[in-house]
């Protein structure tokens, strides 16, 4: 009779364990390749920048912020859930929300809304798309949703903002009709 010896735990470095967890969680939400980790060769991998040290102490790390920004950029047109963002960062939803606000000074919802409004601004100045189409392209439910969010953030209606930007743009051909007096 030989006694079974307890299986020894595989000797794994912390970075190996994090990779395993990252791959598992990333595959659950179908985001292979988005989860990356910081270079661990240098024990002081945050450098000498005190701002980065402060973020690492109370907020998201640079690699977590990159993952969040990439995810939001990719899925801006659809619903962006806190749970998916937290999973990318390998933290709980509650911890993610606190760390995100500590890092950027705004909630994840406000960040996503701001990114949508910035996309809408670019589209309004660069294209002739109607506001209802821009709203859908930016992940809003309809034009009213875009208008309310835009007005709340910038204090002006999107159509008025668009007209103002087109008038102020140098070298841009005016899209407004020009009236010529008949004498």
From TrEMBL:
Superkingdom classification of source: Bacteria
PROSITE patterns, per database record: HTH_ARAC_FAMILY_1, HTH_ARAC_FAMILY_2
Record carries keyword Transcription regulation: yes
One Pfam family named in its UniProt record: HTH_18
SUPFAM superfamilies named in the record: Homeodomain-like
Keywords from the named record: DNA-binding, Transcription, Transcription regulation
Keyword Heme in record: no
Domain HTH araC/xylS-type: 66-164
GO molecular function: DNA-binding transcription factor activity; sequence-specific DNA binding
UniProt-recorded name of the protein: Transcriptional regulator
């Amino acid at each position: 009779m030989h006694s079974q010896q307890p299986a020894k735990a595989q000797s794994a470095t912390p970075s190996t364990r994090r990779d395993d967890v990252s791959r598992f969680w990333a595959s659950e939400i179908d985001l292979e390749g988005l989860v990356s980790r910081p270079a661990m060769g240098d024990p002081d991998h945050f450098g000498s920048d005190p701002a980065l040290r402060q973020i690492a102490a109370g907020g998201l790390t640079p690699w977590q912020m990159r993952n969040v920004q990439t995810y939001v950029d990719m899925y801006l047109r659809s619903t962006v859930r806190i749970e998916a963002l937290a999973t990318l960062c390998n933290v709980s939803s509650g911890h993610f929300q606190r760390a995100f606000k500590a890092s950027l000074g705004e909630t994840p919802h406000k960040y996503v809304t701001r990114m949508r409004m910035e996309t809408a601004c670019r589209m309004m100045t660069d294209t002739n798309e109607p506001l209802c189409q821009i709203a859908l392209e930016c992940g809003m439910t309809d034009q009213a949703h875009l208008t309310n969010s835009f007005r709340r953030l910038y204090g002006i209606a999107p159509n008025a903002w668009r007209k103002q930007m087109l008038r102020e743009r140098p070298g841009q051909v005016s899209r407004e009709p020009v009236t010529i007096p008949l004498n």
